[in-house]
Structures are given as C-alpha cells and as structure tokens.
Amino acid sequence: MKILTHNPAHERTPYEFYILNKGYNSGKPLEHPCPNCFTCLASSQDEKELYYWLCFGLWQARAFRPYLIGSVIPFIRLNDLLQVLNRSGIKAESDPAAFKVLVDTLNLLVSREKAMKNTLTLLGEAKRATVHHYLTRR
Known about the structure:
Helix 1 crosses helix 2. Helix content is 54%, strand content 12%. By secondary structure, it is α+β, with helices and mostly antiparallel strands. The chain has helices spanning 45-60, 78-94, 96-136; strands at residues 2-5, 16-20, 29-30, 37-41. The radius of gyration is 19 Å and the shape is extended.
C-alpha cells in the first residue's frame, strides 16, 4: 500500500481511500477526499478493506493522538501514520481470523449507530411536527 498527500488532480482508482490528517480526527478513514487528507492506494480490494478497517479501529481507539503535533491545528505526519499502520498491519495479518471478527463487530456497531442516529433524527422531526401542529391548530 502507498500513502500520498492528496492531490485533487490525481485520477482515482477503485482501490483507494482517504485518511484525514488534520485536527483531532486525524487518522479517520474517509470514502471521499477532503482538502486535509492523505490518499491510500491499495493494490486490491482486500488490501483496501484491511487498511480501511485498521485505520478505523485505530482512529476509534485514539491510537493516532500521541502522534499529533502542532499548537493551533494538530496534524499527523505521513511517516508517523505509516509507522502506526505498519505495526498494526503486521499484527492484523498475523491473525486474520481475529481481525475478521473485529471488522465484523465494527461493521455491526457502525450500522447500529447509523440506525440510532436515524431514530434520533425522526424523533426530533416528530417533536417539531407536534409543536407545529399545536401552534397552528385553531
């Protein structure tokens, strides 16, 4: 896998994803690029999935926080990101069954989180509609 500083002129490949590199969410994997991200170029879909979920897990565990530098806007250096990913990638590849269980668990938790956020949005809309109905009735 190669990791580069994102260049909007770069032609996208099917096996790439992005990693946020500025702010306290540095290390967060992204499906779509943003101005402050790295581009991760994988050689296959399996490699892309491995490193995407590895980044996601490390970001959730706040494993990138000790590597943030900068006094106003914290950021992570490319070499530090590579170092963390390489160490964790070796561990993930040494026990693929355990890593698959981790990825499946993360997928389940992410889908449940989305469902809960959707429920909260619907509850908020129901509250607004209830108040609106009360205020507009005669």
